[in-house]
Amino acid sequence: MKSLAIALLTASAFALLALNWQIRQANSSTAPTAIDESVLAHPSAPVAPEKTEAATVSPSQPARTNSQGSAPEKPNRPAFNWAAIEVADYKEYVKRLRAVGFPEELVRDILIADLGKFFEAREQALKPKPVAYDAPLSQRQNHDIGSEDWQRIKGLRDLRVEEQTALESILGAYVPREILRTPISRNYEAYEFAISQLPPEKRDAAQWAQETEIYVEGYNKTTSTDHAAELEAYKHSRDQRDEELRQVLTPEEFERYEMNTTPAGTELARRTIGMQPTDEEFRTMFQIAYKNWVDTGGVYGRWRAIPVPSEQIAAADREMNDSLKDALGHERFLDYQMAISETGQQMRNFAARFDLPRELMAQGFQLQNEIDQLARGARILNPAGSTTPPSRPPQLAELQAELQQVLGPELWQNWLAGKDLRVNLDP
How many angstroms from the chain centroid is the CA of residue 289? Predict the structure, then answer.
């Protein structure tokens, strides 16, 4: 019954939309066509709907009669009159749509579509030409951007803010807008997601701060020829963004925003999908991972922007792993290791396929991990094309024999058959 009610409501909404379109074609002079601040500030008085002189009765259905045998009198009811709803004042227009029972989501859709037509021509004139997703990298990462291009990008942002402001003024509620995008590669979807997770009353301010940083960083990156000076300018614009965000967000909200937008956080989330960390676990892991990001030369969103000696990187990686193990505990650190490595993912899938106990899965993963490390070391000592006969570390055979004993003959054969299997998905 609930699904039927929803279906009926949806059908009614589409019917009203169709009626809206038909009547607007015939009475286009009454449609809202422009944003006028005076109109928004002083909405016109509502127009009373017309009323019919008498109700009609369908000829296919007999009318009910009273005790004397005559048809009872029916009270006059107002006929639906779209002209009494659609007015030039957008605020009054929305008010009347709500008054006759339009769902709020449908009211928003009608208004956004209507105002969208008003802004469309101006927006198209400012939009950059689209680049195909499979275009060469030189076209997708084009840094040959002139000052006129940057003015258009800025103008497009200002126009979208104007449209959003008008919508929010009319609807009396937050309305999202697309994040500012530049030809410089950024994780724009991550910004939109992070903003959507904030309280509605904080989203506009947060988006403005983020878009300003995106614009300034992109402009400096395409106009500066001094890498060191550009990096310092990037630090400065990022510090300004952080200061503005902290004025709006609580410390917890700011940290969550960072986890959802910085590469250290988004990459950590991608790599630990199989681990399924709790919110508290991920928060702790992010703090450790972000420290490693900085210790290995990362600057905010740029990976290893500052050259760092390899010994320092190796020491930072060891510190990160030790910190994660201490924070997560033995069992969950094992889940983390298996999630971030191909061998761990294969072993987890293998264990699920053959219903292996966790102890056996963990033992098999640790042995195979040691085997892989020894094999990588042997390949370094015996590179491809070398005339020296390849040497196999003696421990390699011992570890393989131990793994075979742990799994048993049948599981061992299945593990060997599936471990190096590569599936070709080409058509």
Answer: 22
Distance CA 367, CA 406 (A): 10
Q: By the 8 A CB rule, do 174 and 168 touch?
A: yes
DSSP lists the bridge partners of residue 78 as 51
Quote the DSSP letter at residue 382. S
Average pLDDT, the chain: 81
| CA–CA dist 418, 407 (Å, integer) | 14
Using the structure block, give the residue that is written with the tokens 């779209």: 82
Q: What is the 3-state secondary structure (H, E, C) of 283-296?
A: HHHHHHHHHHHHHC
At 16-53, the pLDDT tens digits run 444 444 434 444 444 444 444 443 433 333 333 333 33
Q: What is the pLDDT of residues 243-273, one digit of tens each?
A: 999 999 999 999 999 999 999 999 999 999 9
Confidence band, pLDDT 50/70/90 cuts, at residue 66:
very low
Identify the CA nearest to 180 among candidates 200, 158, 149. Answer: 158
Q: Shortest CA distance to 419 belongs to which of 358, 353, 346?
A: 346
pTM: 0.73
> Distance between CA atoms of 278 and 105, rounded to whole angstroms?
33
Q: Which two tokens stand for residue 220?
A: 């400096």
CA diameter of the chain = 116
Q: For residue 260, give the nearest of 212, 339, 204, 191 by alpha carbon.
A: 191
The token pair that represents 196 in the structure block: 């959507």
Condensed to tens digits (0 to 9), the pLDDT of residues 323-368 reads 999 999 999 999 999 999 999 999 999 999 999 999 999 999 999 9
Q: Per DSSP, which regions of 292-339 are E strands?
A: none
In angstroms, rounded to a whole number, what is the distance separating the alpha carbons of residues 128 and 358? Answer: 54
Using a 10 angstrom Cβ sphere, with 0-12 exposed, 13-18 middle and 19 or more buried, the burial of residue 155 is middle
Closest CA to 36 of 112, 113, 118: 118
Structure tokens at 12: 């009614």
**Distance (Å, whole) CA 55 – CA 52:** 7
User: Domain locations in the chain?
Assistant: 347-382+393-421
